[in-house]
Amino acid sequence: MKKNTKSLVLTFIGCILAGYAVSCILLPNKIVNGGVSGLSTVLYYAFGFPAALSNAVLNVVLLLFGFRVLGGKFVLKTVYGAGIFSIFIQLCSYLPPLTGNPILAVIFGGILYGFGIGLALTSGATTGGTDIAGRLIQYKFPYLPIGKLLLLCDGCVIVISLLVFRQIDLCLYGVITVFVSTFSVDYFIRKLNISKLAFVITDKGGEISQKLISTSPRGVTAVDVVGAYTGDNKKMLVCALKENEITAFQDKIIKIDPDAFIIFSESQQIVGNGFFVYR
Prior knowledge:
Blueprint: H1 2-26, H2 35-47, H3 51-70, H4 72-92, H5 102-122, H6 130-140, H7 146-165, H8 168-193, E1 195-202, H9 205-215, E2 221-226, E3 233-241, H10 246-256, E4 261-267
Antiparallel strand pairs: 1-3, 1-4, 2-3
Helix pairs in contact: 1-4, 1-5, 2-3, 2-7, 3-4, 3-6, 5-8, 6-7, 7-8, 9-10
């Protein structure tokens, strides 16, 4: 229950960020960022359709495909995410544009939109649109980064915008925005997956192990080692940690053995008990 609540909250926040980026930064500057929201921008300027309405309608069509392949649970989360996204596109449309400078719009709109999409994706949902298409492709090819898949889908939307607007500058702005938002999505998800590996060489391996196991959710692996210079027998403790746990971890060890030798190494991804891989 707690996990589901956290997922819903993160999706909600992500949709707010993405909705604000579209309505207050990208749309006023006619910048097509790809995806259904980009198509909504094209439809808005070409035919006057409200961006929030066209975003919702296009998502309904894609959800029909998503239900057959990804299942009802994913679709329910996507309905929630796409619904909140469309609502905030409409609500934020009543706010004044953040900037009229297209360069600033490309940079800050792309970053904000990418972080919003990243939050939704890491919660197991999407804001709809080409996020669904990206998930469908990733379902068949799970080794492909979601950000790159979104880039492929968004590129098609940029081509459509060029055909409609016939302004190469707007097309190029859109290309840059897609790259910025794609980088933001991948960077955000990669940062969530990064963890730390700690290697502790100590004479008090048993005492430190008990302390760590009893005061944290992380496990410890003990390995017998020999110092090449001294020839002394020691213990090397190996522990996987989240970055925000490092300080407390180090303090516990130093308190027991001030002479302990601690090495921290960055891990791009850890699979196993207590660690979740974000895609």
